Fold this protein.
Amino acid sequence: MNNSNIHTIFHTTLRNIALFISVSLSILGYSQYYRDKKNNIYNISFIFINIIFLLVSFYLTFILHNFITNNNEISKSSTDFLNIIYIMFGLIITILTFSLFTLYRETT
């Protein structure tokens, strides 16, 4: 696999990770509409869906990390790739923490 294919796979997967994060944040924002309406079933359901989308993005990031670390053909730019992946892990974990806190706050 040449370098351009690796870059293509990396950027495509990174775009999909960002897409899942964006969708999860929009679902979390949409749950606030039902939070204001005092409709707990929809509110909590959308928070769960938000968490599921975040877990999918975490899994995609994990797969991308394994692809980068297990591919012997990647040049010295793999450190840049890994730094971006670690930033995505941190971002997902931060948003997931806030989402779980929101779920806890809404269920108690």
About this structure: Residues 58 and 92 are 7 Å apart (CA to CA). The mean pLDDT is 90. The radius of gyration is 17 Å. The chain is about 90% helix and 0% strand.
